[in-house]
Amino acid sequence: MADTPPDPNGPAARTAVADTAEKSVPAAKTGSEASPEAGSGQQAAARPKRREAFFDNAKYLAIVLVAVAHSWEPLMDGSRATKALYMVVYTFHMPAFIIISGYFSRSFTATPRQLKRLVTGVAVPYIVFETAYSLLRWAGEKPHHLSVSLQDPWFLTWFLIALFVWRLTTPLWRAIRHPLPVALVVAMLASFCPSISGDLALPRVLQFLPYFVLGLCLKPEHFRLVRRREVRLLSAPVFLCAVAFSYGIAPRFASGWLYHNTSAEDLGQAWWTGPAMQLGLFACSLALTACFLSWVPSRPMWFTVLGAGTICGYLLHGFLIKGAGFAGVFDDHPWLSAPAGEVVVTLLAAVAVTLLCSPPVRRAFRWAVEPDMAWAFRTQE
Question: Residue 162 and residue 112: Cα distance in Å, rounded?
Answer without folding.
Answer: 20
